[in-house]
From TrEMBL:
Pfam families: Response_reg. The keyword ATP-binding does not apply. GO terms for biological process: phosphorelay signal transduction system. The keyword Kinase does not apply. It comes from Pontibacter fetidus. The modification 4-aspartylphosphate is found at residue 55. Keywords: Phosphoprotein, Two-component regulatory system. This is Response regulator.
Length: 126
């Protein structure tokens, strides 16, 4: 059996966090969570993460800043983690902004859970 992949969900809304967590757990992913940007960085440094679902509007350090910090990390295993942006405010960002920050994919809110599972599978299949 394949090893269980670990997904970090960075999301400050408990409702969205819990729903997303349940859906991915049903797909046999191990889920870690972070409610703010400070927790995101600590979590990636202390755990092996296979992908991050990054809400762009999290407190302390927003998702774009967290992504840039992860991409600049000296540890290659951390700097290469696939990051999937999740936001209800995509109009505030262009695809160029996402690329420049190092975001691999983007999912709009409200989340399409089939798309969520498909996207996570795509980035954790490697």
């Amino acid at each position: 059996m394949a090893e269980t992949k670990t997904i970090l969900i960075a999301e400050d809304s408990s409702v969205i966090l819990n729903l997303t967590k349940k859906i991915l757990e049903l797909q046999n992913y191990k889920i870690l969570t972070a409610k703010n940007g400070g927790e995101v960085i600590k979590t990636v440094e202390n755990n092996k993460i296979d992908a991050i679902l990054m809400d762009l509007n999290i407190p302390i350090k927003n998702g774009m800043d967290c992504t840039r910090e992860i991409r600049a990390h000296k540890n290659q295993d951390i700097s290469k983690i696939p990051i999937i942006a999740v936001t209800g405010n995509a109009n505030n960002y262009s695809m160029e902004d996402f690329k420049e920050a190092g975001i691999n994919a983007y999912l709009p809110k409200p989340l399409d859970f089939d798309m969520l599972v498909q996207t996570v599978k795509e980035y954790t299949a490697k």
